[in-house]
Amino acid sequence: MKNNILKHRTDDTISDLFHCKISISLPRPLLGNEVPVGFPSPAQDYIEENLDLNEHLISHPSATYFVKVEGYSMVDAGIYPGDILIVDRAVEPAHKKIVIAIVDGELTVKRLYKKSGKWFLAPENPEFEPLEITRDINFHIWGVVIYSIHKMR
Length: 153
Hints:
Blueprint: E1 4-6, E2 14-19, E3 27-31, E4 47-52, H1 53-57, E5 64-69, E6 84-88, E7 98-103, E8 106-115, E9 118-122, E10 131-132, E11 139-149
Antiparallel strand pairs: 1-2, 2-5, 3-4, 5-6, 6-11, 7-8, 7-11, 8-9, 9-10
């Protein structure tokens, strides 16, 4: 992931932002059957096709970015420090979507939430408070998170 276009810490949630650049295809074997959680079996017998993660995870390459997460405000949504989020700026933000927002010039990752006619940026950790989106704050939704990539702990 080269082409780091922004290094900005804010709200303890985002540390790096990278543009998606698909220059090569890297297909990997895809097992044809679901893998049972039980006794192992030889996987080689079940390979049906190859899967290219670029094709599977990225719908709009020119509008897709990778964001590296820092902080704990979204852990209950399965987003942890060090995770890489795939963000698509071509996807329409909507109620309950996880978004990258710019609040008063700083980037943050939160769930967009509508309640009683009001919009909020809601964390997914009870130790953090939601932020009501009002006319008093400088606010813009930068993109919608479509995938989270994290190492198994």
